[in-house]
Amino acid sequence: MQKLYVAGIGAGSPGNMTRECYSALEEADLIVGYTKYVELVKPVFPDKEYLSTPMMKEADRCRLAVEEALKGRTTALVCSGDSGVYGMAGLVYEVSEKYPPLEIAVIPGVTAALSGGSVLGAPLTHDFAVISLSDLLTPWELIEKRLSLAAQADFCISLYNPASNSRSDYLRRACEIMLRHIPGDRVCGYVKNIYRDGQESVITTLSRLRDAKVDMFTTVFIGNSSTKVINGKMVTPRGYRDV
Fold this sequence. Notes:
Blueprint: E1 3-8, H1 19-27, E2 30-34, H2 35-41, E3 49-53, H3 58-70, E4 75-79, H4 89-96, E5 103-107, H5 112-120, E6 121-122, E7 128-132, H6 140-152, E8 156-160, H7 170-178, E9 187-192, E10 200-205, H8 206-209, E11 218-222, E12 228-230, E13 233-235
Parallel strand pairs: 1-4, 1-5, 2-3, 2-4, 6-13, 7-8
Antiparallel strand pairs: 8-11, 9-10, 9-11, 12-13
Helix pairs in contact: 3-4
């Protein structure tokens, strides 16, 4: 049966790619992906054939990958981070329903909440929620509800897609929602360009986070009531009693 890998390539550096992902891309005859993610993979596999699509063409990208796999070419559709966390895995399965059967193998990768967390220290050692601030596929009213409830439940929170050219004030709006339930001095942090050129990490407070200059390649972290700064790192204790 024809085979399609949906592979999470992790953070920006090749060293953050899992061995399973590396093996899948090595096996593939063709690698498909969003233009920026294809450019991250090319230096590792310079002799592969590539097809890319721009942002906002996710369904077209998945159809392209499915159609190429059905031609008998082992195909890999690459996603940043993990292929199942805001990745293409679910959409590939949806698209594939309209085509003849093919083997789909979802290859996990290190999502930004984990790779970004490692840069800041250990902000997600306890229960946490991951919320995207992009309202392209989710109504803002539902995002507001999730932010409010996660804050009330004292989760550590990781925010994806905190801003873009058309959503420059979304992080500020999110912080104002959470400030209804969380004190302004709550330890927070953010990481830009995780494990890529231009990486930048900042530890701050929720009040100051409102004015942070972030973009779609930034991952934001809001601590819970136990989160603190230890030797310049953001740390959420697990709660071991014998420390």
